[in-house]
Structures are given as structure tokens and as C-alpha cells.
Amino acid sequence: MVSRFDEYPQQIVIDAFGKRTGFFMNPDCTIHQNLGNFIKQNEDKFFVLVRSSQFGFLKTNDLRAVAIVRHPLTAYEGFGDRHSEFVPTGIPSEEGVRWFANFWNKSVDDFMASDSVILRYEFLKKGLTEEVDSSVFKGWRPSLRTPSLGKHLKKLMLELVGDRYFKIYADWIL
Description:
Elements: H1 11-21, H2 31-41, H3 57-60, E1 66-69, H4 72-83, H5 94-113, E2 117-120, H6 124-127, H7 151-165
């Protein structure tokens, strides 16, 4: 999949990122490579990466992370509440479920391929181990949400994500 991460940074991006972080991107490396180098040089810091795993960011850059995965039904609805402009056909719709399932699957693929620590959002406190700095999650209040999608869309989501989902979760019901 070709993404904007595969492009080379323009000077305006180099300047803006450098001003904000102190890290100036190499114009001869892709944005993907630059972000990987940035994280490797700042291993002692905490970053929130959104959507980057959709493009295999962690595996490509040989990075491990603490990845937070949310049940795809509640993630889809929550994503639609805040970011529906990214879903080409809107939420809720069959096309929207297909788009989001693809996004969710690619992210989970990257988390698993990079051997990242995967935490289930709904059960975050139960999933914390010595390997994870729990202070990062101070104040988080993960909640269970009852999805309001119709049966057809719930079934479609399960069909599209089930093979990966059941490697992380024990059952489909929340």
C-alpha cells in the first residue's frame, strides 16, 4: 500500500517537525524512515501513533510498541463519532464497516508482526504487565460500550476481522 509515509518530506515538513521536536528529517529518507529514526533516537519517551500501523510502520522500522486495540465494533463507532470525514462512505454503512475493518486488520497485523505488547482497551488494567509502564495510563478510564450497529453490520464486521480478533480477544460479546 502506498501512503504519504512513503513520500519524501518537503522542506516545510522538515522545518515544522524540527521546530516542534528538535529532530530535523533527512530529505533523502522517506517520512516513514524519518519517523522510525526519530522514535529510535527518543526511546525513553512516550508517543501516541495514530493510523501509522495501517502502513506497517512498526514492523518496517523494526520497532516494538505498546499497542492499544479496541473492540472493532466500539472502535468503529467511536471513530465515526470523532473522525467520520476519514471514512469515504460515512458511518454507519456497509462500505464504512469494510473500510474500517481493513484499517483495523492492518493495524493489528503490524502490532503482531512487530511483536508489540497488545493491550485490549476495554480491559486495559487487567493487561498491564511489568513490561508496560502503567504510569502512562494514569487517569485512563477504559469503558465497555454497547455497540448500536444493526445486526447485519455487526455480522459483517465479525466476518471481516474475526481471524485476527480471536488472536487477541476470547469472545465477540462485550
